[in-house]
Amino acid sequence: MQELGRLEDLPLEYCDALSEQNLVPLWPSLRAVLPPGKPIPRTRATRWSYSAIKPLLLKAGELTPIEKAERRVLVLANPGHGLEKMQASAAIYLGMQLLLPGEWAPAHRHTPNAVRMIVEGEGAYTTVDGEKCPMRRGDLILTPTGLWHEHGHDGDQPVVWLDVLDLPLVYYMEASYHVDGPRQEVRADLGRAAFRQGGGVLPSPLFERSAKRYPMLRYAWSDTRAALESLAAAQPGLEAVQVSYVNPETGEDTQNILGYYALMLRPGQSLPLPARSPAMVFHLIEGAARVAADDAAFTLEEADTCCVPGFSKVVLRNTSADQPAFLFIADESPLHRKLGVYEVRN
Ligand SMILES: [Fe+2]
Questions:
Q1: How far is the CA of 262 from the centre of ligand 1 (A)?
Q2: Is the Cβ–Cβ distance between 246 and 252 less than 8 Å?
Q3: What would the pLDDT profile of 139-187 be if each residue is shown by its tens digit?
Q4: So what's the pLDDT on residue 194?
Q5: Cα of 283 to ligand 1 centre, how many Å?
Q6: Residue 164 to residue 256: CA distance in whole angstroms
Q7: How far is ligand 1, taken at its centre, from the CA of residue 149, in Å?
Q8: 8-state DSSP, 2
Q9: How far apart are CA 255 and CA 314, in angstroms?
Q10: Collapsing DSSP states into helix, strand and coil, what is residue 333?
């Protein structure tokens, strides 16, 4: 490959003259912005242990009242991007959020999309667009772009959940902002409940389609887990026992930018994943697993989370010989597909 000229090869006065005109020579940086063959990711394979996060999060509960935090979150920051950037990958933000009994995180809406993966505790709920969504371990709750949401807690133990947002991308686009609002009125009949309970039918105006962009906001873990177990039982030869969280009305990804999946590893199973362009996040809901990604390898205990950069060769392994393992996965696939940069390399 041709060696290109360096910045220090240029006369200082020439560089100063360029800067004065807001000009930059491309060739010293060309290989960095267009590296050969594949990207050079800033995202580093990183693991966050829940047993390390939990005491620090509970301490935050003592140090900072909810009124002073609005959202009491410890951000899972990737050192490859710099901790101050508060991002797990180029497009993914991860945060572990604590709500104590009786606390209230007030209503707001914002341009980034969010989901919650509930990690621990009972009795909390998120009200999204007027629908009160109970929060239980493994449930996935959407708070899509522009929808009002707030969190409350009627239980007696701390509740913790993992927030996944496309904040880094929306912020980079200079499109990130929020609006505060009054407490939402919970509406009993939204059609969403009817949709879930009614075998796929949806109340709609006469011969019109529903105007709801997001007909389903809560994906109960009990349903998702049962779907994975049924799939595994029905197809004993199936290697990848995976389901995608989709918009049930369109069959498309639940949100525009990030994709969400649940995966079951059979006891003792090793599952190599194809190397793909999007970065991925793995969160262990149940069981014990090992994630190997190129030169990095992590053991995941329940509620641990890790991320791997795009184009990584990943092998997942269930380290239990007699129990299944269940993983929640988030990735940047919808974004990559929409932009036309999605790639799979075997
Ligand atoms: Fe929010």
A1: 23
A2: yes
A3: 999 999 999 999 999 999 999 999 999 999 999 999 999 999 999 988 8
A4: 62
A5: 21
A6: 13
A7: 6
A8: P
A9: 24
A10: helix
